[in-house]
Amino acid sequence: MNIPTQAILFDLDGTLVDNMMVHHRAWQKSLKELGLDYSLERVKAEIHGVNLEILQNLFGDKYTLEEYNQIAWDKEAAYRDIFAADFAANIVPGALDFIRQAHAVGIPMAIGTAGPKENAEFVVENLGIGDLMGHLVHSGMVSRGKPDPEVFQQAAGALGVDLKDCVIFEDSVTGAKAANNAGCPVMVLTTTHTPPEFAALDVASFRPDFRGLRVEQTNDGFMLVG
């Protein structure tokens, strides 16, 4: 597999860290406190998207906006507490080696995540990649969530690269759809979903992790090889 590119954009949750089950456990805890006793399987199947939208879809006008924001904050605090207990075990194999190799070659890289600022910074800090990324775009910086490609548009713009010239790494169906909507090749990490779930989308490659991938410099940019 050889994909020409000018930059790499990464999703974060489920892509660089295999942490979606941590999110599911945090949602399960928060929903139980609100009177909804969901199994982890049900959380995984039904709870997706931006926190405020999830809560409003579940509870309607039961809570005020201020209360919803506090519930969302508490859920994310629970997520960080659960995750911090065993962070290293959840790093996707090969992710750090790949990012370091790509940075050494000189390719611009950025992160575009649907997660809130606190979570994104928590993960980037614990991965130790803050100085290797040209930019970080989180949910608080966009008005439209995935599958709208706004988060990737901002990330590419911050790098000074046309979005269509980027390769995107994702793990979710909505994230891959955002990449398709942007006209970008997308590499899907199968940490969260199986390939058949992406049947309606255009996916360049499915991979269990980053091992075996590298970036090479070319006369007119870079090549993702693996």
TrEMBL record:
Keyword Metal-binding attributed: yes
Cofactors that this protein relies on: Mg(2+)
GO molecular function: catalytic activity; metal ion binding
Keywords: Carbohydrate metabolism, Magnesium, Metal-binding
Cross-referenced PANTHER family: 6-PHOSPHOGLUCONATE PHOSPHATASE, HEXITOL PHOSPHATASE B
Family: Belongs to the HAD-like hydrolase superfamily. CbbY/CbbZ/Gph/YieH family.
Protein name: HAD family phosphatase
Organism encoding this protein: Neolewinella aurantiaca
